[in-house]
From TrEMBL:
Keyword Ligase recorded: no
Protein name: non-specific serine/threonine protein kinase
Keyword Kinase: yes
CC annotations in GO: plasma membrane
Compartment(s): Cell membrane
Catalytic activity of the protein: L-seryl-[protein] + ATP = O-phospho-L-seryl-[protein] + ADP + H(+); L-threonyl-[protein] + ATP = O-phospho-L-threonyl-[protein] + ADP + H(+)
Enzyme class: transferase
Transmembrane segments: 54-77
GO MF terms held by the record: ATP binding; protein serine/threonine kinase activity
Organism: Acer yangbiense
Coiled coil: none
Amino acid sequence: MLNSNFVNLERKPLHHNLISFKAYNIVTINTKQTINVYNIIMWFLGFSTNRRNLWIIGAIILVILLTVILMKFAVYLDAQARNVSSERDVERGSTQKQKMCSICSSVGVIRTYALEELKMATRDFRIQIGVGATSFVYLAELGDGRFGAVKRVMEERGGTRKIFLDEVSVLLRISHPNLVGLLGFCLEKGEQLLLLEFVPNKSLFDRMHTHHGQSMGILSWSNRLNIALDIARALHYLHSQADPPIIHRDIKSSNVLLIDNDHAKLADFGLCKLGHDRDRSNNGSQTPLSIKGSFGYIDTSYLKTGLVSPKSDVYSFGVLIMELVTGLKSTQGSETLADWTRDWRENNDIEIWVQMLDPKLNGNANLEQLKVLVDIANSALVENSEERPDMSNIVDRILNCIEPQSHLDELTVHITCK
């Protein structure tokens, strides 16, 4: 029994040792193979396998790892810088909007609109009622039977964010019966929208120079005189009563909107310039500006020098006067209306002036009033801008020629009734 047990006990260790021996041999073989592969790689790369070169290889690997880590860190820092920049842009835009909103709240009536509100009011910009150099204008239904005009400033037409914000800034500062008023604005999702007062009878240009406008009836002489007075009052307000003073820079018949046959409002303040002397240097000279305006109406002195002043608006008003008198557009072929009429209007013969009259009037014009309007046009269109009258003077001259006539008409009616 003892021997039998002994034999059994010996078999187990022998079996165990056999397994261990095989495992050892396998590990030894694998280790040798690994070492051989390593040596082959080192030999292929041109390194000997001594301890010194192992340290060199380790140093190279460490440098590579540090380079990768530094590159990753640089990419991370760049991404963070971009995020900060974009956040600042958002904050800057938000600050501008907050400033606008604070002005709006002080005015009381004007407010900001959500894009969806104005899209709904315009039925997704369906009914177009006007076109500008940088914008389209759409009819908006505001509820309770009220209407507005949404001016959609388009970046692809040159309507930059600066132009839009400048126009909003001007509209927030002004209030006059003969200026189109601002009701609100929207600056959202890339859209630049102004909600403006709706003036129902389109522009003076449409009324005088389109078939549809003329089919509504010809503007009488007294109509034209009253329209001239309203625009003169609007310009007098901008030049002398607004704070700071404002130069419109785009007076033309398409920017004169008709309330009715006798009354008008001046529109489109996208090219306005605030202040008369803001661009003057220390020695009193003005810095030339890029030319803004519409051909046929632009002040010739402004065209030559790039220097703009309220007298530039006076020149444009002189062209508008001649447009009302003659019924002609501001350009005649390649010639401006101011040049085209020069020989007639600078002649002192009243009969020559009568020949300039719009033939659609059939000669129904007051000759004394015609003389006043032609005199105003001549003084407004002189080459030297300093010699042109102020708008306050022009308002007085038009008023003085209208009021005696109105009084005479009342007197005539009174005598007839008796």
